[in-house]
Amino acid sequence: MSLLEVRDLTVTYAGGAAAVRGVDLRLEAGQKLGVAGESGCGKSTLALALLRLLPAGTRTGGEILLDGEDVLAMKWGRLRAVRWAGASIVFQGAMHSLNPVHRVGDQIAEPLLLHRRATPSEARRKAGELLEQVGLPAARAAGHPHELSGGQRQRVMIAMALACDPMLIVADEPTTALDVMIQAQILRLIERTVAGRGVGLIMISHDLAVLADTCDRLAVMYAGRVVEEGPARRVYADARHPYARALSAAFPRVGDPASRFAPRGLAGDPPDPAALPAGCAFHPRCPVALESCAVDDPPLRVAGAGRRAACVRVAQDAAEEPGDPAPPKEARRTTP
Ligand SMILES: Nc1ncnc2c1ncn2[C@@H]1O[C@H](COP(=O)(O)OP(=O)(O)OP(=O)(O)O)[C@@H](O)[C@H]1O
Ligand code: SF4
Ligand SMILES: [Mg+2]
């Protein structure tokens, strides 16, 4: 059984925005899955849906099997038990996620107390240990969030996420707004933490290069759908879907002067999820669109061993690549 299996997940906000549309994903224990895509493609919505943290009035469909149990069907008591202890989230922007009036040590201890994992004095001691694990002195537990730098606050968020030893950690843009040195430190910290514990990690970012470097597999989202999924470095180096290719080409390659002097972007904007175009949602921006793309929305299909892509052109070159790892047992389809 997979640690996490997302089947045909759909999320529609109260105003009608179809932010996630038929997403299928799978994550094994100890595996790191990157989720990439432009702003507004539904990455955070997907992350929030995994723990049912979406605002009231949002419609959600499909299944989210965490260790075989459907999160979407859980009663509130069970869901509360699963949050933090089964799966936890490091949110986008740590300053807004920490409570400004409480000491950071108390905030790290809170999930331990809520889940009755420790007495108050044990929880205080564990909070100090967790701070040390994320590279901060235990004495920082007595400080308030405003006394810490952005990078230190993000470390506190990671300590909180680890407190109850979850099976799954979802990190939503954990390094946004941090300088590049601190970014690298935080990413290495998350990587190390996950590697040492056999925890599953979903790392969300718009930065394909960072994900290719950090994760085992990579899913690229566009307009609420996964349009390409496969081994991270291979998707980054040789994307099959035209959108994933454009996203990858937008990052200059180290040592490649051509990409340094002429990084390629993608013209146009992503569509409004409340008014999606018919057919393939990418067709108005796609440089290789066919006439049929304005009508047909292709599902994810096999695009080489262990790889899937949702593009009508991919069917023609779905041959396996030499040296590819074994394909997954089944190639799931995303419902259009
Ligand atoms: N609470 C909400 N109510 C209505 N629409 C929302 C809400 N939150 C997000 N959306 C819309 O859903 C779509 C997906 O938003 P989401 O925050 O998931 O994108 P994202 O990929 O995380 O973007 P970013 O990279 O900017 O964080 C966007 O069009 C957004 O405007
Ligand atoms: S299906 Fe058509 S429009 Fe969509 S990415 Fe492929 S070629 Fe482009
Ligand atoms: Mg987001």
Automatic annotation (TrEMBL):
Membrane topology designation: Peripheral membrane protein
Region (Disordered): 315-336
Keywords carried by this UniProt record: ATP-binding, Cell membrane, Membrane, Nucleotide-binding, Transport
Biased composition regions of type Basic and acidic residues, renumbered to the chain: 327-336
Top-level lineage group: Bacteria
One Pfam short name: ABC_tran
Subcellular location: Cell membrane
PROSITE patterns in UniProt: ABC_TRANSPORTER_1, ABC_TRANSPORTER_2
All residue ranges annotated as the ABC transporter domain in the record: 4-248
InterPro entries: AAA+_ATPase, ABC_Ni/Peptide_Import, ABC_transporter-like_ATP-bd, ABC_transporter-like_CS, Oligopep_ABC_C, P-loop_NTPase
GO MF annotation: an example: ATP binding
Family per similarity comment: Belongs to the ABC transporter superfamily.
Protein name: ABC transporter ATP-binding protein
